[in-house]
Design goal:
The protein has helices at residues 15-25, 38-48, 64-74, 94-104, 115-134, 142-155, 171-180, 199-207, 224-227, 243-255, 281-286, 292-298, 315-322, 336-344, 350-364, 372-380, 396-427, 434-455, 460-467, 471-481, and strands at residues 7-11, 31-35, 52-56, 79-83, 106-109, 161-164, 189-193, 208-209, 221-222, 232-236, 257-258, 267-268, 272-277, 301-304. The chain is of the alpha/beta class. α1 (15-25) crosses α5 (115-134), α13 packs across α15 and α16 packs across α19. The longest helix is centred in the C-terminal third of the chain and has 32 residues, at 396-427.
Length: 483
């Protein structure tokens, strides 16, 4: 079955269910810790670093949202399987489970699941965890697991791979994983950022040149296609190449021969291409900025990497990993409300921004546990300013369009964040009717804003950070509630 040294925790006060789980888990070996009480489990989970947690929700005494957040705070790397009590109108609502899965990486486990089905579920989970680890990634989300599966399948072939994703999503890490898991793993892996060179130098880096081919060409230089010698070439920011370079790249890809600048004959080359871009290449093709034939030659296998805002369930695991305590808890680093705020944050800089956040926290607040106020200060200090089009070599109208799009995107993130908070407040109020619920939400919101203003002594900027909303939104709410 699964390999040894696996760690499973089960949490239930039901002896019959505990025995059922024990019988299902026993053949897997590894370590199995059974807790018969939730409070005991929460105290000891941080020391266990389990791979999988089976948690019975019956008689938990907490809302499922509260319970899931507490467990994730103590076990950020674990797959969390929750046994639903299936009460009508309760935790069984599909919207609730979708939110729990997307936000905290929790999954539903039927209470009456047969032993064979449970073993198959555990085997599948361990296989998925192994695939993510083989790719060098950290995370529990369906998006990262789907990408891992596709990456490893692509690695077994020699097909060209096009990795698409925003800056900071780990495109070079993915390219290295393709190489490491391929038959070319013993050969070199050479990376080249196509946007880092002007056109003439980029051609020299790619294809090489002969002595005297141009000024300062004092000797023969091997290009990356010749130097890789049976390995893998990673061409980052492929969308930034000029039409002339694109034409030469297409010829090399089709003929498997390269002619250095100034040479009279082509040389046979053995390589695999993995390309990456943070642009939407299909749009670039439609706009005439990228060759259609080269696009289809590169996109034999397309590997999209989702931004961190679309895989929030990975945030706790990434925070733990970048603290240098892979598999450990976050209890000494963040309190629970602070973790919830970071899960809800959109991370426009993706994993690179998250890694920098962890490092910055260690510098600003060494040895202290981060609360929402400290998290707000750390996030506020890195709000991106306006990027002026100075010496970029790009057309002014293109830069202006990107600036407008960035501003609208930030506004949308603020609105989405506020909507999620209001929706969760609505979901926790099960005891009142629709009209009463709306009134109750307004009262709760007004009280929380008033409390935040009181705690910050009327400082609206600090109050907005404490509440996790934008200052403009807070000003509007203050006027609306007459505070």
């Amino acid at each position: 079955m699964a390999r040894q040294a696996r760690q499973i925790c089960t949490i239930t006060a039901d002896p019959r269910l505990a025995e059922h789980w024990r019988r299902a888990i026993e053949p897997f070996g590894g370590s199995h810790t059974a807790f018969d009480g939730l409070m005991t489990a929460l105290r000891r989970l941080a020391d266990r670093s389990p791979d999988i947690i089976l948690l019975d929700l019956a008689n938990a005494g907490l809302t499922v949202e509260q319970l899931t957040a507490k467990v994730r705070h103590r076990a950020p790397m674990a797959d969390l399987l929750l046994v639903e009590d299936a009460e009508p109108g309760g935790w069984s609502k599909p919207a609730t489970w979708r939110d729990l899965s997307a936000r905290w990486g929790a999954n539903l486990l039927p209470r009456d699941q047969e032993i064979a089905q449970l073993r198959a579920r555990l085997t599948a989970l361990w296989s998925e965890r192994d695939q993510v680890a083989r790719c060098g990634w950290v995370g529990l989300s369906p998006e990262i697991r789907a990408a891992s599966n596709l990456l490893l399948a692509a690695a077994q072939s020699d097909a060209t791979v096009l990795i698409e994703g925003e800056s900071g999503t780990g495109k070079e890490l993915a390219a290295r994983a393709v190489h490491r898991n391929s038959a070319r793993a013993a050969k070199p892996f050479l990376a080249l950022n196509c946007s880092a060179f002007p056109e003439t130098l980029l051609e020299s880096e790619l294809f090489g040149h002969e002595k005297g081919a141009f000024t300062d060409a004092f000797g023969r230089k091997k290009g990356i296609f010749e130097a890789v010698d049976g390995g893998t070439i990673f061409l980052d920011e492929i969308g930034e190449t000029s039409p002339a370079v694109q034409a030469r790249l297409l010829r090399v890809l089709e003929e498997r021969q390269v002619r250095p600048i100034g040479a009279t004959r082509a040389l046979p080359v053995d390589f695999r291409i993995v390309a990456a871009t943070n642009r939407h290449l299909q749009s670039a093709v439609a706009d005439g900025h990228f060759r259609r034939d080269l696009y289809f030659r590169l996109a034999v296998v397309q590997l999209p990497l989702a931004p961190l805002r679309d895989r929030r369930a990975d945030v706790p695991a990434l925070l733990a990993h970048h603290r240098g305590q892979a598999g450990g808890a976050l209890t000494g680093f963040l309190d629970e409300p602070a973790l919830a705020r970071l899960v809800d944050y959109d991370w426009p800089g993706n994993i690179r921004e998250l890694r920098n956040f962890v490092e910055r926290a260690g510098v600003r607040f060494p040895g202290l546990t981060l609360d929402t106020e400290r998290v707000g200060e750390l996030l506020e200090n890195v709000r991106p300013g306006v990027n002026l089009p100075v010496a970029t070599g790009r057309r002014a109208e293109n830069v202006e369009r990107e600036m407008i799009f960035a501003a609208l995107s930030e506004l949308k993130r603020d609105l989405d964040y506020l909507k999620r908070r209001v929706d969760r407040l609505s979901d926790t109020d099960h005891a009142v009717s629709g009209g009463d619920r709306f009134a109750s939400m307004r009262e709760v919101e007004r009280e929380r804003i008033a409390l935040a203003l009181q705690q910050t002594r009327g400082n609206r900027s600090q109050a907005a950070r404490l509440l996790g909303i934008g200052e403009r939104t807070l000003y509007r709410k203050i006027r609306e509630y007459g505070l």
